[in-house]
Amino acid sequence: MQPANPALQKSLMDVPVRVDIVLGEVRMPIEELMALSPGEVVALERRTNETIDIYVSDRLMARGRLVVADGQLGVTLSEIVDERAAA
């Protein structure tokens, strides 16, 4: 099926969208944060087998799981979040 307005579809595909994948959280004093070196590992308050949150433009949109494929870190979606249903 062809889009009704191909120019509109192309222009919408050019709109920048911010996507944040939240792997976990950690609280640390600013002194420790400033002392971190490149490549240093920080333990997060979430286990690797727990779902991760996926935000689009600061809105929780989905949850997923981390995967490694061909040496690359990725995310598989496991749930689409409907915040309106929770309200």
Low-confidence stretches: none
Given the C-alpha coordinates, what overall shape results? elongated
In order across it, which strands form the biggest sheet? 1-2-3-4
The proportion of residues forming helix, as a percent range, comes to: 10-25%
List SSEs in N-to-C order. Answer: HEHEEEH
How far is the N terminus from the C terminus?
Answer: 35 Å
- According to DSSP, the number of beta strands is 4
How many whole angstroms does the radius of gyration measure?
18 Å
Largest sheet: 4 strands, antiparallel
Strand content: 25-35%
What do the pLDDT scores average to?
85
Structural class: alpha+beta
Question: Helical stretch count?
Answer: 3
Please outline what is shown here.
The chain is an alpha+beta fold and 87 residues long. The protein is built from three helices and four strands; from the N terminus they run H-E-H-E-E-E-H.
Which terms would index this structure?
single chain; four-stranded antiparallel β-sheet; 3 helices; alpha+beta; 87 residues; 20% helix
